[in-house]
Amino acid sequence: MRHRALIVSIALILGALGPSLGPGAAPSLAQAPEEKRGIEKNKSPATGYSEAQKWFRRAAKQGHKNAQYMLGLIFYNGRGVEKSYPTARTWFERAAKQDHSGAQYMLGIIHYDGKGVPKNHGRAGKWFGKAARKGDKDAQYMLGLIHYERAKGAKSPKN
């Protein structure tokens, strides 16, 4: 019983002294993972996107389909770079050739909306169909929309 009281007393004293050791004494658990990864706080989003692009590009050049897809999104949305639909399309095509359904969906969007290419719902349908068969619900919706527009008699660019 005495040992238990001694242990509890020591724990209480150390617990009370912990905050007085100062903020630099030991990194909190929340800070440790970021420090291990070399992530600096208070960096601008542009710097973060630039750093992300650098690493995605390295992986993409080695054929990593998710990195290729992410580069496509970066250029499509202009995150840390100037928007470039042709560059986005190039990266999406590389990922789509490796059966990346997200990239296939984005190629459908590019052709459906005419982002950097002439509007072409036939090509859009081809890409939406590939992604839809993999279970992409947004691609399934867009494929349904294309068929609905055709059935309704709406003029679709280059069906």
Your description of this structure?
The protein has helices at residues 2-17, 32-37, 45-61, 65-77, 85-96, 101-113, 121-133, 137-152. It has a domain at 47-154: Serine Threonine Protein Phosphatase 5, Tetratricopeptide repeat (Alpha Horseshoe), CATH 1.25.40.10. Helix 3 packs antiparallel against helix 4 and helix 7 packs antiparallel against helix 8. The longest helix has 17 residues, at 45-61. The relative contact order is 0.08. Helices cover 67% and strands 0% of the residues. The chain starts with a helix and ends in a 7-residue tail after the last helix. The protein is elongated and about 50 Å long.
Concise overview:
With 159 residues, the protein is mainly α. The chain has helices at 2-17, 32-37, 45-61, 65-77, 85-96, 101-113, 121-133, 137-152.
Relevant terms:
159 residues, elongated, Serine Threonine Protein Phosphatase 5, Tetratricopeptide repeat, mainly alpha
